Amino acid sequence: MYNGVIENLKIVALVSLCAYPLIKHPSLIRAILKVASYKEKTVIGIYFGVLSIIGTVTGVEVFNYIRIHAGMLGPVAGGMIGGPLVGLIAGIIGAVYRYSNGNITAAPESFAILLAGLIGGLLFLTSKNKKINLLKVYVFALIAELIRVVLIISNIYPESLAGVYLSMVAIHMIIVNPFGVMILVSLVKDIQYNQNLTGANYAEKSLEVAKQSLSVLEDGYDETSMEKIANIIYRYVEVPAVAIQSADGSCVFVGSESIKSRIRESNDSTILSPSKRNQFMNFEKYQQDMVIMKAPLRIQEQIVGELQFYKMSNEIVATDTKMIEGIASLLSLQIQNALLNDQEKLMIQWEFNALKAQVNPHFLYNTLNVIKTMIRLNPEKSQDLIVDLADFYRRSLSERGDLIPFVEELKLVKSYMDLQEARFGNKISLSIDIAPEVYSLSFPSFTIQPLVENSIIHGISNDEEVRLEIKIEAKISEGNMVVHVSDNGSGFDEKILAAPYNDVKPKKSGIGLNNINMRLKSMYYNRYTFSLSNTDIGALVTLIIPVDEGVNHANEN
pTM above 0.90? Predict the structure, then answer.
């Protein structure tokens, strides 16, 4: 038995060595990140099919042309890593080759190899967010091996060979091959870890670009400032070229000399003319091997420009998309500030202040530090936090108009709390008690999140044993929407309690409290209530707005 295990381990080691070049290939990385094309998946499937052939060819004969081999390694690992299509293609190739070799186990073993690819694809489909759990990998690979053994023992002839096959061949493959699958898949987990690290670095680069662009835009937003910002982005982001296009069609382009020469040679005026404005991130094919990644620059509902990254099509990964979206969102906010004159600033000051609070540098720095720590301790959790951070800014900067469905406001709060809970752990918690009919009602955007942020900033205790509990409640009462945001913190200062009832903003009045009150007043006049109070356990904020008449009035204005 010991020699059989050793021989099987040699075969697994050889297959893993042959798989290593593919593991470093960008196509496999894109398959793991769910952005691979069908053509790339087909190529990956063929490669894993070749690994199946290698695992079969290098097998060691035991008796009657029956071998210890690793023919199932390629299909089952390919399905787990690349999905059902990859597993199916690898399984077909491996099965056809195995059947062509003949002997008494050829037919059942070929069928088992085909099933192995589908079993690997099943794990891919059932894995949450395509995260790979090595224990599940082992269990699924073991199931595939056991199915192969059962099929062979049930169909082997003469039946007397079943016991010999089980003791001399099957037992070694059952022990070794599932671990071989784990080796291949664990190499893939290293790729995922590197992608998490890359995502965190991209977030840092986005913040640095935003910081440097802020000083450029102090003198206004024009073609000169556009060119300076494009150079800043090009300096920090690893892409061949960057372009910024304004609403009037003017465009600045910064890129490598090779890209500029290609544009001159092709006499292409794509970057010099305005493209069709798109509300969302999109890709546009440029020449044969290059793609333009485009993200709109917005001021409220209006598209005022476009940020463009030029990149080789075979080098694009998911983190590139997140980076351009993040930079475009932050740049949109800064352009908005630069374009507003004094009168416009006065009219929409409440909105800008709310958005400015969302992109507070301290919040970003703290979140990035948490993500950096999580990358070392829990790579999968760090990936979730990067997604939460992107979702938070997407929701903060993409909502249209003054009113949004109440459920969208709660989603923004949820993304914010996920990030804060990663930082503070069990020191904070959020509970929600919302009447079902409230979720679809229109509600002033960026109203709840500043209140939750205020609770955390002013309510969290230095005592590790004290837990800050925040609660959001909402219901319909007498034709009004009644919303309560409460916590068990230290409560409001007496001067802050009086803030909603006068025009004087006290120092340290909290995140956005006076701003929210002035905004509600401009929307609902005297048909609303915004009150601050202290309870026996902490602070309470109450908002009461009309459901029908008030909303109609708000829409008219």
Answer: no
